[in-house]
Write a structure and sequence with these properties.
Length: 627
Amino acid sequence: MDILILLSLCLLSCRGTQGQHDHVPKEEHVMLGHKVILPCDVHSHDDSTVQWLYEKNGNHLILTTGPKGTSMEDSDVKDRVKVKKNMQLVIENVQIPDERLFICRIQDQNGLTKESKVQLRVYKTPDDPEITMEENGIPITDESVQIGSCQSKNGFPTPNITWYRNDTQMINEKNGVVVSTQITVESSGLIAVKSVLSSPVYMSDVYSTFYCEVSYHLPKGAYMKESGKRNITVDYPNTEVQIYVKSQHDMIKEGDEVELICKGNGNPQPQITLHRKDEEEALTEDFSHSWKVTRRDSGGYICKALNLDTFNELEAETELHVHFLDPPVLSQESPVHVELGGVLSVLCQANASAQTDIHWTRDGTTVAKGSELNLSLQDYTDAGRYVCVASVTSVPGLTQTKELQVILKGKPQVTVSSQLVEVQDGEKITLKCMALGNPTPTITWYINGSAVDGQNSPISDYEVSSELTFIVTEDFFNERVMCVAQNEYNSSTEYIQLQEKPVTTVTPDEDIGAQTTEEPLPKTGSDSTKDPSIESRSQKSYGVVIVAVIVCILLLAILGAVLYFLYKKGRIPCGRSGTKDITKPGEKDHIVVEMKPDSPAEESVLLPGAQDKKQPVEQEKYMDLRN
């Protein structure tokens, strides 16, 4: 009987749901504002009718499409939807209310209906979390007190907020931690989450950092964002005070900026006064005092504070030591006047708070170590500015200097650009002379005992230069020009020797083209009269060369003519050997003429004959070519 009842109910159920298939809907995920395509997983024919619906307090028809065309119903997605050929539903610019269950329903010609469902999920990344901590100090307590709040806006679906203390997660309702969450749905459908943190406060929280984390889901997975890290102000009692000196330098010197600081070890800070030791008047009623110190600021300083919890006075003390260095003092006042060639000894001393190092410099180079400067002033270049440098070795930057100006007086020192100058007649030359002395010397030029004006130019306070320009004549050859520098102490002289430039000549007893150097004869004594032969020698040198060349050419021509004449008369036979003796055998002095068959008579060369002695009877007569 029961079986029959069950079968009857099953048949009635099948009739009531003819053509319908219930199953778990698919899900589609999309970011807010993007496009989504919803599939229709029911097979259809060309003559089938398709309807798309969504559930919202019941089913709402979106559109119908079939053989008769497509009709769009009035809905909140009407302007953002369309159907593709394969019955997929396209939704543009997805909004938060679009997160619904969509239904694809297909009915064939026989009235059989089939459905498929798609659940649409919409996502929006929330804003960065904003953390706010309590601004006022929080006293140490075992009770839970509000510490801060964290908020994240414009997210979907609802994000989650987690709190951390020093990178350790704070769990709600554990160790006194209380986390309360407030969720607000905005008019756009987006969600704002605010989390408030309460917790006991400990002494260690003076150095603790707190931050919050918002975690959320997107189509591609889970994500999270962290806020910035914040501290809280913890109030706790002061049990002692500390005083210390703050400065840019470890060793403090006069002129340094110094800050004297006094602080308690609690929070908030107690009311503090700073005093100079053994003085009633306070330097300041603040926790710090800064100023540029002098040596008079050295000494003890006291910091006083009142513990408001116990009304006991707290006190701390420190010492301030300010180093100093007075300007050096010299045993002789600057400037110091010394005669050239003299010696100078100067002592430098300095008063300081610690051991000092003293040395002397000139132009940045150390010239003496120690406090004493000893100079042997043999040259005007030894004069000038010397500096005594005193420094406290243990205090970097603590240095004082004192300048000593050394002035030398004496006769001039003279130099010339060259002591020997080669000149020639008609040449224009310029001689240069420089003099150094104090007082500043004057320069005078002398030639042949007569003063000549030069062009004088000052170089420095004690140095002068002079140039003398003139045209050289023969009268200046081998003369000495004097440069005389003079001041009130004495005079000094330097000489410049004028020497005639060497002349190139060709002498008769040398081959044509050979050259010799002929040096001019120097003058002797003070007599300015010159030997006429010496004076004319240079002028006639070129004429002598020409005459020598002409004489050589004439001699060669005569010799050639004589040899040609003898050859024609048969007196000089020609042979294959090319050499014939034209003298009688036995003659001591004879000439051998060497004739080259293919050479003209002018190229014949006279060679000395054999030196063998012969008997007088064997000697032959010969022609003396010397006459």
